[in-house]
Specification:
Order of helices and strands: EEEHEHHEHEHHEHEHEHEHHHHH
Number of helices: 14
CATH architecture of the largest domain: Alpha-Beta Barrel
Strand content: 5-15%
Family: Belongs to the dus family.
Enzyme class: oxidoreductase
Cofactor: FMN
EC number: 1.3.1.-
Distance between the termini: 28 Å
Helix content: 25-40%
Number of strands: 10
Function: Catalyzes the synthesis of 5,6-dihydrouridine (D), a modified base found in the D-loop of most tRNAs, via the reduction of the C5-C6 double bond in target uridines.
Number of domains: 2
CATH superfamily of the largest domain: Aldolase class I
Length: about 375
């Protein structure tokens, strides 16, 4: 698969996930197999204003190449300035634009999965981004639409192709679905038919490498985007590498190997954050994902999820049964799920799909989703 000048094999992308896809996690995943590994969502306003936290978030480990940044923005001028900054200051090799985030604090500003409803505003943003990127490829990640009555993905895909976007990725759910229900893989096939001139990547319900192969076979998409399926499981990228290379081998680490990876992950976060207590606290959310399916007592789980230091984490990990084999039936949903009763939108957002006005206070100065 080619994303502009960048060759990607296997045709796999790590989806940006707020609070998850920082440099330590990306490095662990990248060690397992190839693909594109995208940083956490960066807001364009925070980037152009050189917010210190945001500038730390766009730092990559020396081993990371190519470097991929995902941007969230609503104002075409600010998006254009942010992409131009990335290109001119060599901050990344690839820019992805977020039109898929369903969380209320994003959609109520008209951003994320709400934005493609405004077709002309979307076009203006894409035009500014592609112009500012120079030789860097620009891609788009989006959802089917706001809800089943306001689907936007086919129009958005055509606009993206017309404006010079290098590839489009579709999370085959609406914003209202959030992470609930079943992803509509048939929508991915329809998008591929609508924009055959650029790569189309599918996203949604990929819990195993075999799911990825099934998605490609069923939809004709050019590659896959993996999000929640890799939570607590960097090994999924080795499985994906094997699967796309034609190998049936799959990684099934024993609990001792999982524990070693957990400690590496936490240690890397400490180095990245330069603050042990906050880094270990940040790692706690990963514990349940790493231990999914394993027989681990409640006391040990509590010890791991309340650790305040690396020594405390090491002590808890030492209590695990290192020889316990990988549990069966773990290729199942991970992370948050469930639908939303409504999508929060700016007042009057649905009145005119062709309006190009940028909502007041649309641009957030905080990165990370």
């Amino acid at each position: 698969m080619k994303i502009g000048p960048i060759g990607v094999w296997p045709p796999v992308v790590l989806a940006p996930m707020a609070g998850i896809t920082n440099a330590p996690f990306r490095v662990l995943c990248r060690e397992q197999g190839g693909g594109l590994f995208v940083c956490e969502m960066i807001t364009t306003r925070a980037l152009v204003e050189r917010n210190p936290k945001t500038l730390r978030m766009v730092r990559f480990a020396p081993s990371e190449t190519p470097r991929s940044i995902q941007l969230y923005g609503v104002d075409p001028d600010v998006v254009g300035r942010a992409v131009r900054m990335i290109a001119e200051e060599d901050l990344a090799d690839h820019v992805d634009l977020n039109f898929g985030c369903p969380v209320p604090k994003v959609t109520r500003r008209g951003g994320g999965s709400a934005l493609p409803y405004k077709r002309n505003l979307l076009r203006r943003i894409l035009r500014e981004a592609v112009a500012g990127a120079g030789s860097l490829p620009v891609t788009v990640k989006m959802r089917k639409g706001i809800d089943d009555d306001h689907l936007t993905y086919l129009d958005a895909g055509r606009i993206a192709a017309e404006e010079g976007v290098a590839a489009v990725a579709l999370h085959a759910r609406t914003a209202r679905q959030h992470y609930g229900g079943v992803a509509d893989w048939d929508a991915i096939a329809r998008l591929k038919e609508a924009v055959p001139e650029i790569p189309v990547l599918g996203n949604g319900d990929i819990w195993s490498a075999d799911d990825a192969l099934r998605m490609v076979a069923r939809t004709g998409c050019d590659g896959v985007v993996v999000g929640r399926g890799c939570l607590g499981r960097p090994w999924l990228f080795r499985d994906l590498q094997n699967a796309f290379d034609g190998s049936a081998e799959r990684v099934r680490p024993a609990l001792g190997e999982v524990a070693a990876m957990m400690l590496r992950h936490a240690e890397a976060l400490v180095e990245c954050f330069d603050a042990e207590r906050s880094a270990v606290a940040d790692f706690r959310k990963h514990v349940g994902w790493y231990l999914k399916g394993f027989a681990v007592g409640a006391e040990v789980r509590r010890e791991l999820t309340s650790a305040e230091s690396l020594d405390g984490l090491r002590e808890g990990l030492s209590r695990l049964d290192a020889g316990q084999p990988w549990p069966p039936n773990t290729d199942t949903p991970r992370g948050k799920s469930g639908e939303r009763s409504k999508v929060h939108l700016p007042d009057g957002w649905l009145d005119d799909p062709w309006d190009t006005a940028v909502p007041e206070a649309a641009e957030s100065d905080v990165s990370g989703g």
